[in-house]
Design goal:
Length: 179
């Protein structure tokens, strides 16, 4: 896993020097994003079979999680062409057979139920749950990477867990509480 993460980091820095894929411009910034992506893994109680990352951008968190979780099939949804091309390039270069890259918006793709949904810095929680509703069943875990104001977005959702690491808030929801 470490070798793959290093190669991902190196290629991201190379691509990012030409195309503007992400704000992470230095090895340390990329590493910080990798650490952020991986941190909440310790709170997952089982290995999901199928997972969906919405708005993967240059790979955070979905691609990093796919490298760390080879037993899970990851669907990475990213509509911006250069970002999706980069994800596809990394899938091929790192031989990530457990990854499918879909270069579309989440609302444009055929829904399928998944065990885990992740997303970071894409849209407010309620909007995301609405667009992702056909991917969610009662057992689905939803893991959203949020900031300190996370609870303001929750309105009537009362059953959730938040794990904190510095300013990051990892929001865990269960399908049965949001559908
Ligand atoms: C601020 S970037 C965050 C990228 C990455 N998740 C991260 O944290 O580095 C937001 C990403 O969400 C994607 N996005 C925006 N609306 C989307 C939608 N409706 N469905 C899927 N992706 C979307 C954008 O193309 C963009 O790459």
């Amino acid at each position: 896993m470490q070798d793959k993460l290093e190669l991902f980091s190196q290629k991201l820095l190379e691509w990012n020097a030409i195309h503007n894929l992400t704000g992470a411009k230095t090895p340390q910034e990329v590493q910080n994003n990798i650490n952020d992506s991986l941190y909440p893994l310790q709170f997952l109680d089982s290995t999901p079979q199928k997972a969906l990352d919405i708005g993967t951008g240059a790979g955070f968190p979905g691609l990093v999680l796919a490298i760390a979780m080879p037993q899970t099939h990851w669907i990475l949804v990213e509509p911006r062409k250069k970002r999706a091309s980069f994800l596809h390039y990394i899938k091929t270069a790192l031989k990530l057979d457990n990854v499918t890259v879909i270069p579309s918006r989440i609302e444009e793709i055929a829904p399928t139920k998944v065990d885990l949904i992740t997303s970071r810095a894409v849209m407010p929680t309620k909007d995301l749950l609405q667009l992702a509703k056909d991917f969610i069943d009662k057992e689905t875990t939803i893991l959203l990477y949020k900031g300190e104001e996370v609870t303001r977005e929750l309105d009537d959702i009362t059953n959730y867990q938040i794990k904190q690491n510095g300013k990051r808030r990892y929001l865990f929801l269960k399908g049965k509480d949001v559908i």
